[in-house]
Amino acid sequence: MKKQFLSVLAFTAILLSSCGGAAKIEKASACGQEGEITASSATAIAETESGKVAGYVENGIYIYKGIPYAKAERFMPPVAVDKWEGVRSSRAYGPTCPQGKRMGWYSDEQAFAFNWDDGYPDENCLRVNIWTPGLKDGKKRPVMVWLHGGGYSAGSGQELPSYDGTNLAKKGDAVVVTLNHRLNVLGFLDLSAYGDKYAKSGNAGLLDLVAALQWVNKNIESFGGDARNVTIFGQSGGGGKVSTLLATPSARGLFHKAIVQSGSMLRTMEQKYSRRIGSAVMEELGLKASQIDELCKMPYDKVLAAGDKAIAKVRAEAEKEGVSSFIFGWAPTVDGDVLPVQPFDPQAPAQSKGIPVMIGTTLHEFTMSTYVPAFRTITKEKAVEFLQKKYGERTDEFLTAFEKAYPGYQPKDLVDVDFVFRPGAVEQAKLKAAQQGAPVYMYMFAWESPVLDGMFRSTHCMDIPFAFNNVVRHASMTGGGAEAQALGEKMSSAWLNFARTGNPNAEGLPEWEPYTAEKGATMIFNNDCQVKYNHDKELLEVVMAFPTRGF
Questions:
Q1: Can you give the residue ranges of the Carboxylesterase type B domain (predicted)?
Q2: What is the model's pTM?
């Protein structure tokens, strides 16, 4: 019934706009934000290289959704979209990239907290969404381009309430952009062994990101933005995309600052393995090399299923060869062309030496006590038994270092504190600092959500609504209380200041100095924000002797 009601409202607005009258709709309180929406045939018209687009105005922010930034045939590099006549309506989100069903570990509790919107899938999914305080007014606003998470397999630029750019744009007089691009088998199936036609297929999704940044470079001035002051930021898989773009030659000059949130990707797929996956897909589908073009005609679901089986097969083969398969799956490939080198191995990319970077993680990331209810009331004795299975005779050393890093800890902290993302983030920050170029800043998000009796703690993605200043809009995750709102004001200010100047220092925060390997300055975001120095150095030294292969 609710969806039908909203559909009627949207249809009414379109009818009114086609008649030339402004449609002013009082937003429903269930949407989490009260205010006036203005949509009409004469409102929010912007010019792009491909043609005019019509958005709408909400709370003083011009909003555009679903603008095509490129088009692409299956497995092919993106190309410019065809120009259109008249004005294109850009008031509703466009299609998302087709993807598999959500992984089984998502529970009803997580569905409530995250409040996902999967949208509707279509291979014609290369779209951008824009929030801006003004149009072509010469103000040269900083531009913040968000790259969504979900690895390289899932997600979209519109899937979470946190991704809405209204509050960030309004607070910081900035232009916020989110986008969709090709994922999984559509974006990262390496068929380069089957001829020049498919030479770039393994990085088609990465090329989509470059195409989106090229579109921003050419068009963002019409939306009040400064093409010479663009920050890319992303979380989880989005952080991996940011890491990879820092090493992608075709992206050079298209952005000027970068933020990596829980997604420090030091290495990605080597082509000998990505090509193995491509070959295994062909085998799964019973195709010969001469039939390679048949892949472009097959139903997506059939190709994806073959891809998933191929990944499992190649992963098993690699493990028998003694090769870690942590990064095996859908991801960019080091092909010597689109991506010539590993993003941050053995060093930070030289092409990005002059780009300031901010890197961080959450304290708990994939919180064990969230997924294993028995861990929520675990005793220290049981936690130590659990740790001994991994750290063996070094367990006591681990406990001593843990107490030093996190004095006064709870027993469940021993199994909840993240050691999957934090080590990579620290290594990435050290490599960036070693360049002695633009500064790198490190943070850790440690605030714990009270939602559902605190079961999520500071889990993976918990920092996103704070960075976007959307703690109320995404109250199902944060609780939306006064403490959350106060921290959201501080964090979003830091993100905005970094986007504007390359320095995240903001009112209400202690002095935040750049990260160095010697001092290890790390901003701890919590109700009482503070900077700590190498607080977990000894602990990480123990942890890294037993590398975690991740989830």
A1: 44-535
A2: 0.91
- Give residue 36's pLDDT: 86
Instruction: Give how many domains the chain has, as a whole number.
Output: 3
Q: Which residue in the list 58, 159, 221, 365 is annotated as catalytic?
A: 365
Distance CA 152, CA 205 (A): 8
Asked if residue 375 is part of any domain, the answer here is yes
236 & 187 share domain? yes
Whether residue 49 lies inside any domain: the answer is yes
Say if residue 446 is in the same domain as residue 408: yes
User: Rounded mean pLDDT of 337-366?
Assistant: 97
Task: Indicate which residue of 181, 364, 460, 474 is catalytic.
Answer: 460
Clarify whether 236 is annotated catalytic.
yes
- State the pLDDT confidence band at 547, using cuts at 50, 70 and 90: low
Strand, helix or coil for residue 235: strand
Catalytic residue selected from 40, 89, 236, 458: 236
For residue 460, indicate whether it is catalytic: yes
Alpha helices per DSSP H over 220-291: 237-245, 271-284
How sure is the predictor about 102, in pLDDT bands with cuts at 50, 70 and 90? low
**Mean pLDDT along residues 172-192:** 99
Q: 516 lies in which domain range?
A: 350-543
If asked whether residues 274 and 212 sit together in one domain, one would say no
Active-site annotation holds for 535: no
Q: Is the pLDDT of residue 13 over 80?
A: no
Average of pLDDT values for 447-471?
Answer: 97
Could you give the C-alpha distances from 263 to 260, 266, 323, in angstroms and in order?
Answer: 6, 9, 22
